[in-house]
Each structure stands twice: as C-alpha cells, then as structure tokens.
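Lecture 7, part B: from sequences to assemblies.

Below are the input chains for today's worked example.
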Amino acid sequence: MKILIAFLICLLALPAHALDGAGILKKVDRNLEPESYEMLRKLINVEPDGNKKEFVLYSVKKGRDRIVALFLAPQSDKGRATLRLGDNMWLYIPEVGKPMRITSLQSVTGGVFNNADILRIDYTAEYDVESAEEMQGHYLLTLKAKTAEVAYDKLKMSVDKKTFLPVDIECLAASGMLIKTLHFKDIKDFGGGIRRPATVETDSPLYKGYKSVMLYAQIKKREFADEVFTLNYLPRVEGLRK
Amino acid sequence: MKRVSVLCACLLAGAAWAEEYSFDAAEFEKKPFEFGGYLEYKPDRAWLNRDGAFYVLNGLERSTLDRNAATLKLNAKYTRGIASFALRADAEVRRDELSSERIKRFDEAYVSLKPDPGFTLDAGKQALKWGKGYAWNPVGFVERPKDPNDAELAREGYTMVAADFIRNFDGKLRTIAFTPLLLPVSGAVNSDFGKPGHVNVAAKLYFLYRDTDIDLVYLGRGSRTPRFGIDFSRNLTSNLEIHGEWARITDFEKRVTDASGAATTQRESVTSSLLGLRYLSENDATAILEYYRNGTGYTQSQMSDFYRFVDSGLSQLQTTASDALLQQALNLSQSGYGRPNPMRNYVYAKISQKEPFDILYFTPSFAAIINPNDRSYSLTPELLYTGVTNLELRFRLYVLNGDVQTEFGEKQNLRRVELFARYYF
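Predicted structure of the full complex, as structure tokens:
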C-alpha cells in the first residue's frame, strides 16, 4: 500500500516539475515579435579587417509562417523584395522584373546571415522541442526541424528564465556540425508591449573572423491582407509603408 | 579612482558600440517622391571572326573592334493615396571605332491604381516578365527577347493596360492571381510588337498549389499569331529547384531561304519548351542547368543554306563588286537568322561560387551555351565584386567556338572581353 501511495505521489508530482518546452518556445516566439507586425531593421556584415556593408530592410509578417522583406538600402539593392510562405521563398529584383525561387540556405545579403535568418518565421512553425532542461538562470531547449526543408536541422536555444527571451542559439546541421551561433543582446522597449533584444549578432566557424549584426529599430503590431503575401504583390510592397 | 577609471572605460566602450552599430530609423521614413538609378561605364574589345558569316554581313574588315558604352538609368516613383506613377528612363551612348549610337527612351512609364490589396490597375509602358526559365522564356509572349548572355539585364516594356486580381486561401491551393491585359499596336505605339491595327488580348493565371508555382498564359490572335502555354517552378529540397515552360504557337510564320537566296514564308504550328534545375551546394555554389527546345528555330540544314547563301554573296562582291546578294542576306538575317540562338536545341549551364576563399561579395561564375546539334558553343567566365557599397565591378569574357557552318562558328566575334563599373545612386 505504501509503495502504491508513493508511486501515485510520484505520478502526480512529475507533471508539476516536467518542463513544458513547447510552452516556453511559444512564449519565446510571442515575446520576440507579435504574430502580425511591421518592422524596420538594419543588417551589418563586418569583415575581419573591419570593413562593413549595411542593408536596411522593411519587413511585414502575418500568422506563423508568412513574411515579406523589402530592401530600403543600399541604393544598389533598393526595391528588392523577398517573400516567404512556409518553406517557399522567392526573391524579386526590380531589374529582372519577376520573382525567382530561392532557398533557405542562400543569402540575399551575403555574410553570415542566410535567408532563413533574414526571413525568420515562428520557431514553433519550423521546429519541435526535442528536450528542455532547466539550468542556472536559463532554460536550454533542443529543437528539431519538422521537415528537411528547414535550414538548420537542430537548434540549441538558451532562454532567459525571467524574460522568456532567447540569449544564444546554436544552429546545427544534421551531422551535428555547428553552422553558426546567434547572440541576442540589448533588450529594448519598442512600445505596444513589445520588449525584446534590439541586437542580434551572429558568428560562424565557417566564416572565421566575419560577423553579421541585425539592429532592430521599429517593431509595431499591424494587420495585413492575405494578398500582400503573394508573388504578384512583391513589386508593390513599398506601398505598405506609411 | 579605479572605480572611476572602470566606469569611464565602460562608458567609452558603450559609446564605441553605439557608434559602431548605429541605426537612425528616421533616415528611412517614407517619402511621396523617390528617385534613384545607376551610371554605368563599359569598355569592351572584340576579336573578330574573319571567317564568320555575320562578320561578312556586317562588313567589318578588321581583326579587332573596341567599344565604349556609357549608360544612365533613372528610376522615379511618385505615390499619392491609392495612385502611383513609376518611371524608368534609359540613356545610352555607345561608340566604337566605326560608328556611334545614342539611345534615349523610357523603359517603363505607367500609372498604377491600387484601391485594394487584391486588385491593381496599371496603364502605360511596362515590362512584364513571364516564365520561369533563367536563360530563355518560351512563354514570354508580351515582352522583348531576353539576351541569355545577360539574362538579368533590364528590358524595355510595351504600352498596355493591365489588371491584377489576387486571392489567397488556406489549404493546398494558397494563391490564385489573374492578370489580363490589352496591348494596342499601331504605327506609333508598340510598332515592333507585330502587325499594326490590333488591340491584343493576353492573360496570365497564376496558382500556388501544393508549394508549386504554376502559370497558364495566353495571347490571342492579333498582331502576332495566337499562342498559349504553361510554366511551373518548385523547390524539390531546400537547395534544389526545378522549373519548366511549354508553349504552343499557332500559324507561326518564318522566312526561310535556300542556298541560292530564294526565300519563302513557312507557316506552321510549333511547340517550344524548357526544363531547368537550380542547385545550391553546401559551399554556396549555385548551378543552373537548362535545356531549351526552340520550336520557332531553324533546322541545321536551313542554317547551312543561309551560310552558303552568304558565301555566294561574298563571292559576288569579290568578283563583280555588287553587294546585292549580301544585302538580301542581311535582310534575311534581320528577319530571323541573325537573332540570338536562332536554332532548335540549346543547353545552358552556369555555375557561380559565392564568396570563395572567404572573400566577401566576390562571385566568380562560368556560363556555357551549347548548341548540341552542331556542337558549337559559347563560354562566359565572369568575375563580380560588390564589396564597395553601391558600386558593382564586373569582368566578363566571351569565347565562341565552332566549325564552319555552325552557329557559334559563324558569329561575328571569336572572343570579347568587357569590364563594367556600375555606380548606384
């Protein structure tokens, strides 16, 4: 009887202490950005000799897996627009005049960030939580890609316990090789209840000495029509800006 | 004192950080009038093919030809409410050792009304690009031909009225978009599109179905003979894309000559198609491979007859000093034989390596256009550097090779080298 009671107590106690990794990841997604938003950010590629190249992007997102990004600078890239619908990605170059399919592993800007980083959709849309561990001051989530189409097979995400915001994310290939690490810094209040890191830095053992940085200037909740997230709309994304 | 020093160091470090990575969003506020463009300078040298049919037709009589070209492209856009006006102007000066040419035109100039995200109405001159192929687009029914050697070059549009309806759905069919258009042709408007006195009707119906882009395209009978087609594009994996096009042209007319210069107009319904792959390797090399079946092209024997006719014209010029036959051949060249890739079958291959040896913004590439029927080919290695903001530097070499009476063996050039610097403002 004693053994049975002890067993029942253990059963009841287990769910109370087991970490809800999926719940943490959902919170991370919503704390980073609202589900539908418009955003202004700068992407900086830094070379080992200190030379920099900067890109400014206006992005709009709807739902968990629809995002468009428009290049505002430099002049040589102005008007380029990229669209992501789930695993599908396209690039529109005004001179070429029609969208062409691109892949998540390519990079429209060069440097360490690839298209999957620049057109990031919700982590819960692309990854399942494989394991969740409680560490000192943070949770460590191990995420596994839902399909082979996803850019990184695995993510090791360190999440701050207090803010439920990511601190570092290691991006791994299926072989286990580290592709890059993302560092989230400089938490800032963007208004409208959005408080998140304003700087994301990345480095990669594949690009020794190189670094890429994303600076977030504006993030606002905003709703968009579904038709905005289509190939035919890509040449007209500029019209969404207010 | 130590504490003050540490505090000062921290403050300085913070300031350096802020300076290093500053972002003033106010600089990027939307303005109703936007303006930009680029200035390009391109010198090139061609080593001429003195045995080539097109060398003879162009009456060159020299072994090299140097050329300088300057291009100014201006883009402007004015937006007010649901209306916008877009303009793309082109001004070029080309000068070689034999002649000079000035071009001034609007590539695009159109008004756009967008009362709803799902509907747009455009009126004016605009460049529509249909099809999924990189080097060729058999379904590009309402656009000027693409140069496969410079497939991403901006092209001049046609004057038209076009509408665009978009609808999105949840499920396997995610998007439908319908783009009908009217394209008038007269002596003054779109005169190079085809026969004057017609208002041509064309349309494109786009679907995004099961992660595949599909377009159905149509051009009705008018200035050109009727035609319809389909194209598709799909990512097979995260680094492999497949695309294709198929077009059927009814009553296609083609001027054909025999070896003596007796030209006839052939009329037949033809089919063109294209199948292509785009692959991205782990080390960021992109490969494009396309096969193009050009139903409107000439057969090998038809091209051989044309080359023999040019030889006859040259013999006539040398023996009688009359260029009558050569003039006739030149007219035939302009009616079809002289267009880029005028034959039936082609293979296009391009490999580009992004940032090799960790050199950021440097992209070497190598492209080949092969005519498998006569085994002639053109090779194009290229070096591109975009490391300086708003400046693009490109070096390109063209090497053409083929036997007598083959496509690339009869072209005007043996080799051509070009440099270009393009500055965006």
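Note for the exam: Chain B touches chain A through 68 residues (CB under 8 Å). Keep this in mind when comparing with the next example.
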